[in-house]
Amino acid sequence: KLTADKKLKEHPELGQIDAVKNNKIFYIDPAEWYLITGGLNNIHNIVKQAAEAMK
Q: Global pTM?
């Protein structure tokens, strides 16, 4: 599991958010997010990842 998951759950305020408590946090590929110079293809991939995670 990601280190970020543990940090979120341990945080006194963020750990109380329903999405954190119910493991409904999802992560997108940081390379696509930060290298947005890929244009619409990257945006499409980010949205696709988010949609898949929400199923």
A: 0.57
Question: What is the number of structural domains in the chain?
Answer: 1
Q: Kindly report the length of the chain.
A: 55
User: pLDDT tens for residues 5-55?
Assistant: 889 899 999 999 999 999 888 887 777 766 666 677 778 888 898 899 888
CA distance 10 to 4: 10
Rounded-to-integer distance, Cα 33 and Cα 42, Å: 7
DSSP sequence for the chain = --HHHHHHHHSTTGGGSHHHHTT------HHHHHTGGGTHHHHHHHHHHHHHHT-
Question: In terms of residue numbers, what domain contains 43?
Answer: 3-53
